[in-house]
Amino acid sequence: MNRLTVVKVGGKVVEESKAIDHFLTEFRKISGNKILVHGGGSLATEMASKLGIETKMVEGRRITDAGMLDVAIMVYAGLVNKKIVSGLQAIGCNALGLTGADFGVIRSRLRNHPKIDFGFVGDIEEVNTKELRLLLEEGVTPVMAPLTHDGYGQLLNTNADTIASSLAVELSNLFNVHLVYCFEKQGVLSDPADENSFMPRLSYSKYQELKEENVINSGMIPKLDNGFNALKNGVTEVVITNAQHISSGKGTRLSHDLEK
Amino acid sequence: MNRLTVVKVGGKVVEESKAIDHFLTEFRKISGNKILVHGGGSLATEMASKLGIETKMVEGRRITDAGMLDVAIMVYAGLVNKKIVSGLQAIGCNALGLTGADFGVIRSRLRNHPKIDFGFVGDIEEVNTKELRLLLEEGVTPVMAPLTHDGYGQLLNTNADTIASSLAVELSNLFNVHLVYCFEKQGVLSDPADENSFMPRLSYSKYQELKEENVINSGMIPKLDNGFNALKNGVTEVVITNAQHISSGKGTRLSHDLEK
């Protein structure tokens, strides 16, 4: 099977032009088919604030009301997605920007939480890779914004880490899929205070231990849960690494317990 | 050759959900392959105003500075494009939203005007239909926002009427192309004061006469220039009609002088 690398990037890397350009040059070096899934960093919150739209938080989690959804659509599908696409085109990478609504790639369902109304947030129900496969065969690089649709005309804000792992799993029937989560650190740290303590490998049972000991912080948990889920469901390799070193092969590789 | 209908829509029709939905239901009825090219109506100006970005005009024409370009990207490629795409998906039309940067569909050059610096405005240089053709064959409906790229990473604001005619001409080698420009009136009026005076046919020489007599207003001129240009360059039929009646076949048909 051909190799396909699915890269998730977010945070500071997508917030300003210079960091985006540096990252895209690294991303470009990955050989074979690739898909980029991006977040929006703090740009949506900043734009909402400029527009006088209040960022609502319930129990520490952001709520996507109608105004905030419009901002997310403008920032994620507009500003961030199209700057990445035009930046990739400039360095010879034939990129296509997408949301989950385009081609109907990702259909989701409004989140139904027993206690919190998250607003226009979608949990993934179905991934359709028909057109993606066709385009990957043509050498096109899809660039996914963290938005999906419900199939009834409603766009929904959706976690980019989950989009990346869902696409990786769905495409693992056809490709040898490598999933790469980028963030600011070198990998998963065994000592949060020591930047150089990153673990080259992390097994699921070790991950559970580190979670219980509170060594792994809450921001990493969705990435790791999605990563281990992908590994269990057919993805060949999952790596957590620094956004500036994705082509180097460094970072933390998730491993099955058998290999620990 | 298979039939392909390229529809350009803008103005009030794209400004609010109810009008968009009504239009999309009409658009959906068109049989065969189709492409939708949209403008942004006054939404970009409104959003710029909310963000405190001044709309600069020189000699009656809008200037796209860096701030206004970001607004155009957010509104055209984000808000308007993705609402159309999710709306079409909801009624069974497999839409894909695009700008000229995606797939490198439309490369343009920064406008070089002897007197006015229009800012980030692009004039079309090259149309690449490779991936579009592939997707049209798969039954996908491309939805184009009025933005292009220069091939060096810069997005540029580009006239939607011109995008529609350029795509129509380029695809006329492979398809029997019908180009439809939608606006608020029933067609081209011979008496601007009389809504019912629309001409079922308009030849190029008659158009020149009406322009000299100032019967045709300035807003219609780019549509008609683009339309006659398309007709001369291989497009089968060009119609100017009301956005709510596109599937009815009504409106003004442009004709070669031979047929007048």
How does the overall form of chain A come out from the CA principal axes? globular
Largest sheet properties of chain A: 8 strands, mixed
- The helix tally of chain A amounts to 7
Oligomer: homodimer
Instruction: Please estimate the helix content of chain A.
Output: 25-40%
- Total domain units of chain A: 1
Q: Which two chains share the most extensive interface?
A: A-B, 44 and 44 residues
For the record, what is the CATH homologous superfamily label of chain A? Acetylglutamate kinase-like
Radius of gyration of CA atoms of chain A, rounded to a whole number = 18 Å
Which strand-content bin applies to the residues of chain A? 25-35%
> Mean of the pLDDT scores of chain A?
93
Along the chain, the helix and strand elements of chain A come as EHEHEEHEEEHEEEHEEHHEE
What is the total tally of β strands of chain A? 14
Task: Please give the order of strands in the largest beta sheet of chain A.
Answer: 5-8-2-1-11-13-14-12
The CATH topology of chain A comes to Carbamate kinase
Per CATH, the architecture of chain A is 3-Layer(aba) Sandwich
For this structure, what is the CATH class of chain A?
Alpha Beta
List low-pLDDT spans of chain A.
Answer: none
In whole angstroms, the N-to-C terminal distance of chain A is: 26 Å
Secondary structure class of chain A reads alpha/beta
